[in-house]
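Supplementary Note 2. Why include the ligand at all?

Several targets in our set were suspected to adopt different conformations when bound, so apo predictions alone were not considered sufficient. For every target with a known small-molecule partner we therefore ran a joint prediction. The input for DLL is given below.
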Amino acid sequence: MYFNEEFETLPRPALEALQLKRLQVVVERVYANVPFYKDSFDKAGLKPADVRSLEDLQRFPFTTKQNMRDSYPYGLFAAPLEEVVRIHASSGTTGKPTVVGYTQKDIETWSELMARSFMAAGAHRGDIIHNAYGYGLFTGGLGAHYGAERLGASVIPISGGNTKRQIMIMQDFGSTVLTCTPSYSLFMAEEASAAGIDFKKLKLRIGIFGAEPWSEAMRGEIEAKLNLSAIDIYGLSEIMGPGVAIECIEAKKGLHIWEDHFIPEIIDPATGLRLPDGELGELVITTITKQGIPLIRYRTRDITSITYEPCVCGRTHARINRMCGRSDDMLIIRGVNVFPSQIESILVGIEGVEPHYLLIVDRKDNLDTLEVHVEVDEGIFSDEIKILQLLSKRIEKEIKDVLGITCTAKLVEPKTLQRSEGKATRVIDKRKF
Ligand code: DLL
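The joint prediction is reproduced in token form.
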């Protein structure tokens, strides 16, 4: 079922023709309205008229998060503030937040793309959407909210926090769709089970999880514990917010990126050159319909691959694979590149180990060290020391076998690692560079 069948199933030639037309308009628009783009195109010796085909996009310079920071807060806006009806910001780990502005038309587009995303995930009118993404400057809460309303579903704007109350509301209001971060969904499952509430008795059918990396193994864990079908949703504030790409419930294999509004590219983060389909690299996105803050070739830092193969759901839009990390989250431990999600997949695959973990990276005597703190289930923790020792040895061995790095596994008691109602912290890097 589609929300906008015509656009979601546009044959590729028509989709690409539309992309080109929209790309030409947006490039003109930023060149005329945003001094940063005028300078950067001029420096590259390019004029808007140089966009004659979609291939020409590759000749244009990238936009980075640093460029956005340098123009804090409104420098990259292409619309006057009088036309901006909403402002969001994403908190970075360093310095000032990244600020984005939406015109009324941007809000309408976002709502439609979120409504399309809900429908692709299997939600529809009549659903009760329990929206536990945070409301505020973060785009998750309001983005999902407007999309749910546009879909015609009933949205519960619960936001994050007060987990006990969340569970009561889900139970009493008969929520059928849950939207929150994947880590928070597991926390909810834990709290419910501690309160003697069985998720299997709730009416939840679908969970739409994103805003942080998670693994296929974690999907299995969530589906089993919450008794629902877990769908991966991707987005970022700079490009729009949630709903840039989503898995369809029919295939659950790759996230359709709404190509009538975004042009995706996968590049080698080191050389900046485009990579062939299917190869892992950094996702770069050009927004082709945004008015408030259109971005040309924005480097997301998210690592994925792309496929244009047809999907069983009938949507013609390309699919990006589950994110396997960010180029700036990638840890280099004794020269080996590791994404936290790779360690997560290993941990979740080991019986008795819970999907709550923290990686602590440090440097001792000029050598990198990795400690993997991970919770184990109650039963195991109360077992003999010997069993615990065997389990930590097994974790260390599997990480060594799969990733080639030596680590120390520290098993901790259930519920001792910090929980988050939003994005979880998975890594503490104590090394000084
Ligand atoms: O996290 C928007 C969002 C809200 C997406 C709700 C999905 C659901 P930011 O706070 O700007 O926006 O963070 C964006 O989060 O560049 C990725 O690194 C990461 N991220 C988002 N979705 C996923 C996902 C929102 N499904 C950053 N898998 C992005 C992995 C994700 N990482």
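The chain has two domains: 1-327, 331-429. The pocket of DLL is lined by residues 90, 133, 138-140, 210-213, 232-237, 241-242, 300, 302, 323, 326 (CB under 6 Å). Comparable summaries for the other entries are listed in the accompanying table.
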